[in-house]
Amino acid sequence: MNVRDNSGFLEKLLQTPSPSGREEKALEVFENEIKTYYDQEPVKDKFGNTYFTIGHGDTKVLISGHIDEVYATVTNISDDGMISIGQAGGIDKKDLAASKVILLTDDHKTVSGAVIKLPIHIEYGEEKEDKVVKFDEMRVDVGCENKDEVVRLGIHPGTPVLYERNTNLSFGENRMVSVGLDDKIGVFVAEEIFRDIANKKHLPRDWEDKYTVYCLAATQEEVGCRSVCVAARKINPDISIDFDVTFATDGDLGINKSKYCDVKLGGGAVISYGAGKSNRINKVLEVACGSGYQNAAGGRAGGTNTDNIQKFSEDCETTLLSIPNRSMHTRVEVCDWRDVQSAVNMVSRAIILKML
Length: 356
Description:
Blueprint: H1 7-15, H2 24-35, E1 43-44, E2 50-55, E3 59-66, E4 72-77, E5 83-87, H3 93-96, E6 100-104, E7 110-116, E8 139-141, H4 147-152, E9 160-163, E10 168-171, E11 175-178, H5 181-198, E12 211-218, H6 227-235, E13 239-247, H7 257-260, E14 269-273, H8 279-289, E15 293-297, H9 306-312, E16 317-325, E17 333-336, H10 337-352
Parallel strand pairs: 3-12, 3-13, 13-16, 14-15
Antiparallel strand pairs: 1-2, 2-12, 4-5, 4-9, 6-7, 6-9, 7-8, 10-11, 11-17, 14-16
């Protein structure tokens, strides 16, 4: 299966705004895609976590990615219609200044905006060219002349502010660039594995006697990995393979490889070793892949849903499989199709051949 054949689904995901806590429309895209080839209603919880299942075995295998993306939030609207914003998720304020944004209203309409900053000519301080614009120095202009006009658009304190959509899935021969690849690319990987399993119904299905596979789109990861705790309790998996992004350290950007490992775009999906990552599962994935994967140290606590899946399940072997990502948490995140294909191939093979 060539994952690029289903690039239309990934593009829809990336084009659909999904700040943490407001993922409903992106979850609809996820549900509708799986329903095109698999006849089942999804299971949802009150935090929006959404999953499908296939198989009926005793061993519960969870494959997951998080569907929310980084954002800022409206904090104030001035009398002259300028909007103040603050940090919400991990959006990069260095990238946000002077960018185009969208504001997501309560009824899922989008309002175009521009993040305004002082011109460099009149920025204050001796080192103005190196100045990082702080959140409380930025304003969002939505073209309104007063506060009442802004409010009539449906904007209020707490309204999410996201990067304008900019998806290009044919960025060179093998790459893609977009906002929100962290971590809609992980949701895409989980869905493509699920598709691969579902489409092999004509093959011997004795794997179903061993496994029940759960394909989960998790919410609210970017604000503390909180919602997956609810899903982990509900599903209580025996095995979890979580898909997220990791730092690509190539590209002559000066990233410290002694700290962040040697991770290349196009080098294959990254298998993480360290606390919370099962050596047994990792070795199975390496055998299933054969070649075309990368290893990295994942000993630092936190940062992805993997740790909370481990903590909030009763007795679950967990690991993290990552897609290299350049320029993370900005409007120009870059990933490589070959790394996506690597992740899908190794996990599909491990499940179908009952290797886990």
